[in-house]
Amino acid sequence: MYRFLLSRQWVILTLVALLLIPTMIRLGIWQMHRYEERSARNQLVADALGAQPAPVEKLTSPGHTVTSKERYRTVTAEGRFDTDREVVVRRRVNADEEVGFHVLTPFVLTDGKVLLVNRGWIPADGPTQTAFPKVPAPPSGRITVTGRLMPDETTEASGIKNLKGLPDRQVMLINSGQEAQRLDARVLGGYIVQTAPEPRDDTPELIGKPGNENAPLNYAYAIQWWLFAAGVPVGWFVLARREARERDRAAAAQETETAPAPV
């Protein structure tokens, strides 16, 4: 009844099914690993955002590399903005995907060290791409600034090419090492995204909190792949049963046609 399973067509179909099952199981395991990785990153971000603010020099120092646990930690610093050595970061978008600049202003601490502060986004509304845009002034005098600590940007991590020959006071990446050379100063590792004080007239536009990665989507994909893996043998069995029934009906019809007519 099932001799047809030894035919070339069914041998190939069976081998494909046997190959699909472990492949789909492994894809489900990979998606589950992605779910766990994204969930862990979401938890790190949540823990950092929920931690109590700390003085910036407790978490970073000149030459320090900001770790994943330190990223997004709220820090405070006391000092003054140095707008004379301010730069803008090219090709940055706001929440509405409009292209403009991020404003990067050195913040001189009371001990003379420098903290890089990303004050937010401004539109690229200058007369030309090479002209330095009009940047709203920060508060003057000695103030306390608050922000989320971020690691230095690199081409490898961000995918942004660090182009050379840019217009004066324009950069592609926020990197404390590069800024330390430009400023000839002791620059704290990483930088902060300013959250307070809020700018006058909402400009520069403050950068919003990071969103969660969609970890549940990977969980759903894992379940989906495992359901597919379970469905392969079920589908193979259904096809085999259908083939067997069709062959039985064909054989019965052939016997009827060849049977001798009654006298």
Shape field: elongated
CA-to-CA gap between the ends? 33 Å
Q: What do the pLDDT scores average to?
A: 91
Main sheet characteristics: 5 strands, mixed, barrel
Q: What's the total count of β strands?
A: 8
Q: Strand pairing plus helix content: what structural class? A: alpha/beta
Please provide the ordered H/E string of secondary-structure elements. Answer: HEEEEEEHEHEH
Please give the share of residues in helix: 25-40%
What is the count of DSSP helices, taking H or I runs of 4+ residues? 4
Radius of gyration (CA) equals 32 Å
**Side-by-side strand order of the widest sheet:** 2-4-5-8-6
Strand content: 15-25%
Unreliable segments of 5+ consecutive residues: none
Summarize the structure.
The protein is of the alpha/beta class and 263 residues long. It is built from four helices and eight strands.
Q: What does the model show?
A:
The chain has 263 residues and is α/β, with parallel strands linked by helices. It contains 4 helices and 8 strands. It has helices at 8-50, 155-158, 176-183, 215-258; strands at 54-55, 74-81, 87-93, 99-109, 114-123, 143-150, 170-171, 191-196. It has a 5-stranded mixed β-barrel. The longest helix has 44 residues, at 215-258. The chain starts with 7 loop residues before the first helix and ends in a 5-residue tail after the last helix.
